[in-house]
Amino acid sequence: MRGLSWLPATSVLGVGLSPVSPADTFYPPTLNSTAYISNSSIGTYGGTYEAARNGPAGGTPYGIYSYCSMPHPRSPEYELPEALTNGSADAKLVYLEYLQRHERRSPYNILPGGENQAYHCDDVRPYLYAGPNSANGIQPMPMYAQTYQDTSNPFSPGVNDGYQHGKDLWRVYGDKLGLIPATPNKRVWFRSSNSPLTQASAGAVLRGMWPDYEGALPLHQMVSSVDTVDSGYPCSAVDSTLLSLKSTTQWKEHLNVTEGLRSKLSAILGANATSWQSTFDHFSDNFQARLCNGYKLPCSISNSSACVTMQMAEEVFRAGDWEWNYYWRTNPDVVKYIQVVEGLFIGEIISRLQAVQDGSPSVDYSHIFIHDGDIGPILGSLGIEALRWPGMAANIAFEVWEMKAEQHDGSLFARVLYSGHPVRSIHGPLDWIPLSKLIDIMSPYVPGDIISLCG
Ligand SMILES: *[C@@H]1O[C@H](CO)[C@@H](O)[C@H](O)[C@H]1NC(C)=O
Ligand SMILES: *[C@@H]1O[C@H](CO)[C@@H](O)[C@H](O)[C@H]1NC(C)=O
Ligand SMILES: *[C@@H]1O[C@H](CO)[C@@H](O)[C@H](O)[C@H]1NC(C)=O
Ligand SMILES: *[C@@H]1O[C@H](CO)[C@@H](O)[C@H](O)[C@H]1NC(C)=O
Ligand SMILES: *[C@@H]1O[C@H](CO)[C@@H](O)[C@H](O)[C@H]1NC(C)=O
Ligand SMILES: *[C@@H]1O[C@H](CO)[C@@H](O)[C@H](O)[C@H]1NC(C)=O
């Protein structure tokens, strides 16, 4: 989207502070200040939090921060690295490490006072059945769980979003760049967390990628108690570091500037419990899920004219974005926090990139289905300039390109796309850097001894 001039229709931002391209909506320059939360004229900073219940949920124009369905690499807009388009290099894509958050879902956090609108989630079939370890054995009846009333349990209704996601990835990385094979083979590898959400997303995305493939595919998972994603392994240092980063003046200040907002929401929604008042996680999740599935913002159960306004929701979203930027970029313990939460997984990514560097990768394409709590620290390790909450299906594509031998001796370059845009990092744009430099950038976040660090 380079050079595209674009202004959001609702922009009331001052000159120099408004996003002028879709990619800019990811990088509010003042996100590290608590004034970002309280300044209502910032609105959504050109992003969007709304989607119809069915059908595609991407923002318009393509490429803006869109919480309900973050943009992903798509053929019409995908651009080759500048070094290739300007003719200074000739290289081919040799490896893709693709990480994504699961697709759109219903809320985790149901309002303590009750929801004034019921969720109807009976139009999705979460399958669960076991088969023999061979195509020759007797195959089981495909069984799915039929929901028959609205529930407080989360699961993914976003199968359409996932299918489109896979189709789009195929057009770029299969059709156009020839890396993803026409049918799955031994050079592709998939993994998810232990959550049904990520597994359901994988089924939809991979079906979009290979619509006619008739076989089954392995989706690798670690044992949940030691999983290196989604906070699997036990680590008391995660809790103690979190406690300490919440004791700073900055953290207290963000609660201070939102005192009025939080007490209004508490009165309307009966949400005075500490779990609702001490971070913006629960309010954000509840409002995002409503807006992303075609529902209205909530009203009081006892007074139908006392409702959460869009202005309140936007302030909640700005506060949520401030918190994510604080957790993974600006808190004083950020290196340790990323190490204890995500360091092992970052180490796994590095070892796959290192195998490419050493000329011995075991696969050409790895795709891992994870959570916002994984995407955040990984972007932190890359030194992203600003980090808004990674929305549904937020994705990171690590591309490795090999120079034609006669040019630079087959040397390897990396590019990292976040939701389709090259990452803007404190290390410069991650658009065309030596693969070894990318490894150097991420390596400090891999703990030397996680067992003793975790305590
Ligand atoms: C609020 O934000 C607008 C646009 O970003 C800016 O022009 C204005 O100075 C800000 N106001 C305050 C009080 O920070
Ligand atoms: C082409 O792009 C690369 C990467 O951005 C840059 O380093 C190089 O100077 C550019 N070369 C020309 C001739 O513009
Ligand atoms: C909170 O805000 C009030 C004014 O609204 C101010 O007097 C107080 O010092 C602030 N406290 C902190 C910890 O920032
Ligand atoms: C929340 O409000 C209820 C009802 O007004 C009250 O009984 C309870 O003590 C409050 N809890 C907190 C943590 O303030
Ligand atoms: C209901 O909410 C509206 C809007 O906040 C308020 O004006 C009204 O006084 C409330 N009614 C009662 C009975 O509390
Ligand atoms: C973020 O703001 C705090 C002060 O509120 C400052 O100490 C810190 O250096 C800033 N961090 C970055 C990365 O800008």
From TrEMBL:
InterPro entries xref list: His_Pase_clade-2, His_PPase_superfam, Histidine_acid_phosphatase
Keywords recorded for this protein, A-Z: Signal
CDD domains, alphabetized: HP_HAP_like
Keyword Signal in annotation: yes
Highest taxon listed in the record's lineage: Eukaryota
Signal peptide limits: 1-22
One GO MF term: phosphatase activity
Family: Belongs to the histidine acid phosphatase family.
PANTHER family (alphabetical): ACID PHOSPHATASE, PUTATIVE (AFU_ORTHOLOGUE AFUA_3G14570)-RELATED, ACID PHOSPHATASE-RELATED
Protein name: Histidine phosphatase superfamily clade-2
Taxonomic lineage of the native organism: Eukaryota, Fungi, Dikarya, Ascomycota, Pezizomycotina
